[in-house]
Structures are given as structure tokens and as C-alpha cells.
Amino acid sequence: MKITIVGTGYVGLVTGACFSEVGIDVTCVDIDTKKIKDLQNGIIPIYEPGLEKMVRRNIDKNRLHFSTSLANSLEDVNVVFSAVGTPPDEDGSADLQYVLNVAREVGEHMNNYTLIVTKSTVPVGTAEKVRKEIQESLSKRSETIEFDVASNPEFLKEGDAVNDFLKPDRIVVGIDSERASALMKRLYKPFTMNGHPVIMMDIVSAEMTKYAANAMLATKISFMNDVANLCEIVGADVNMVRRGIGSDRRIGKYFIYPGTGYGGSCFPKDVKAIIKTADQYGYSMEVLKSVENVNERQKSVLVSKAQKYFDYDLKGKTFAIWGLSFKPQTDDMREAPSLVVIRKLLEAGAKLKVYDPVAMEEAKRILGNKVEFVNEQYEALIDADGVFLITEWPEFKFPNFKVIRKLMKGNVIFDGRNIYDVDDMKKEGMDYYGIGVGLS
Hints:
The protein has helices at residues 10-21, 33-40, 51-60, 97-109, 126-140, 161-166, 178-192, 203-234, 238-246, 267-280, 286-298, 301-309, 337-347, 360-367, 401-407, 422-427, and strands at residues 2-6, 25-29, 64-67, 79-82, 114-118, 147-151, 171-174, 198-201, 318-322, 351-355, 372-373, 386-389, 412-415, 431-433. By secondary structure, the protein is of the alpha/beta class.
């Protein structure tokens, strides 16, 4: 079986590598010549555990190929996945220009029956726009080649994407023909032999499922952050509250950890997009609008704590920043809370020394010379008045506090992920501010 995947970003590359891992002949296409050349040499553009080895292994086995030409990658192909970006437009809606460009080019060059599958996160109604673009391109060629369109949204967690793809909770497929259904079942059979379900549904429902899933997870995060802020006001410990509600199976223990807000490439963009879709249909998603507002407010919570601690004068203060990526096990800094914390501290006149185990190069690209980049976590603490823990990388969880006290000028920790215990911090002689716990 041969497939082509258009787009070698996070979704496209993981999808291509994992399909090739089970023996499918995969060609990944991208217009970025340098990226394709790097990929052909086994150099991947993102950090994702296990992905680089998988890419190199399948290149060596001649199952995974990379090209800049979609036209040359359609010969004898059964399925084309569209995994290009859908960045937010100025009004928050998803920009579909890249998705439609792929559809147009497929229509211009396909030479046999092809199933075109949208893997990108797209709003309801996109499949019909894709179908229209392909049909118009075929009509211009005076061709009557049969094709189908399907929706197959991804549910990959950055930092664990390879495992998510190989052992999925579920595979959602939106189809409207038996031929397309049979192809998708055949394609995913290696991933479902251990009981992981393929959920077949209509295309519109599949498109909505992706947005609804991300919106629900974002809602849980913002809800818990709101609860954490109230806990501080009334004197409760949000960690105890979280354990109390997480034991209820109807609620569950996942995505109820308070912090500095959600970020990344999915939740912020998708919440905006589903709100915009509803607006276009004359309906207001009031809960999700509040989710978005709470999340934006939450990104500033640690800075507010620092302002209060230092009597609202941060000018000339030096702070260490531990963690820059929006979550551990990725170098992704899109919509990262760290960027808001850094911006607000700089605006207040503070000096910053920053460190992240993986995201330093990406951070340098974004921040330039606005901050001082250091080579390891303790170097950031030298003469620091305080430290901000933003991303819960494993190496930050059990630091040497004797070294910390020796290196720092101050003794305060602003913990944006509640990875330290309040009582432990008191014993270590540290002033401690978490989210929904600690001093206030």
C-alpha cells in the first residue's frame, strides 16, 4: 500500500513515520527544500521522543521517502493525507488556504482513484470545500477520475505522539462511501489489532469531534485554574481539592492540574476556531469564551505574585526562568505561557536568565537578545533574586536546594506547576508561591 502525506510538520511527520513503521510505503511532501533535504538525511525539524530513530530506521528500509513535488508523489498512490497548517486568521477562524491548495494540486495531478484525507484540524464544512476544489481541477482537465474525501483528525500529545499513534485510544474517521471506509480500515488495521477502536462516522461529525475534544480539555484546565485561584483566596489547598475531585470517575484525574495556563499549537488555536465557527452560525459559545479569558489571565498569575512579593518593584531584579516550552518533552513554544511571563517581567524592568533542556534554540529565535541564555539550570540561579518554574521538566523536580541557596541572592520560588511541596520548601528555607497553594 502506498500513501502520500502533504506537510512535514508535527502531525505529518509523526503520521508518516508511524505508517512506514508498519510496512506502508510512505512519501512525505513539503515545499520547504531545506527541510526535505534534512529529512532525507535523517535530520528532523522537531523534538519528539522516539521520532528521529523511527524516521532514520524507515529511510534505511526504503519505506519512508521525502519529496518537494506532490505531482511526482501521486503515482499509484491509494491515499493522500493533507497535514498542512491551519493557522488562526486575524479574526480567530482557521486559515484554510494551505488545505485548499493541496486539494487543488491533487486534482491537477491525480491519475487514478484516490482517497483524500484531511488530517489537519479544520472547521466543519472543510471536506466539502476540499471536494469542490478537487472537482474543479479535474473539470479543467476534462477528467472524470473518481475520488473520495474523508476526515481523520489526529489526537496526538506532543511529547508522547509516537506512542499515541501506535497505541491510540481511538481512531476517528469521517467518510461517506463504502470504498473510503474499506481503505481506511485496511490502512489502520495494524493499529487496531489489540482492540483500539476505529470509530466511523459522517465527515461533519469527525470534523467537529477534534474541536470538541480539544475544547473540553482546555475547559478542564481553565476550570481548575479558576478553582486554584479561589483556593488561595479562601485558604484551601488546590492539590487536596484536585485529589478529592479527581477520584470521581465522572471527572477523572487527567487535565485537572492547575498551572500557568495552556499553550501549544492546538488548544489556543482550536478554542478560537470553534468559537468563531459558532459565531458564524449565529451561536455564542459562552463557556469557551470564558475558558479563553481565564487562560489568558492565568498566564500572568506568577508575575502578579512576584509583584506583590517585591512590593511592586521588579526593576533591576534578576530572575531565573526554568522551562520555556509549553510542556515537557517538546521544543514547541507556540503560545507558551513562558513567553507571557518573560514579556511581563521585562516590561517591569527585570533581568532574566533562562534555561530549558530542549527548547533553547527555538527560544533564541523568538527572544533574541532580550534575555540571557545559560547552559544549565543552576547557572541561571547565580545572583538571582528569585526563580520561576514554568515547565515541569523531570530534571527540575528534585534540585539540590543547598546549591540553590548558595547561588541565589534571594530565596523565593514561583512554581507555575506545583511540583514542589509547601512544607518541604519551608524546611529548605525557601519562600514558596505555587498555584492555589503556598504563601499569598
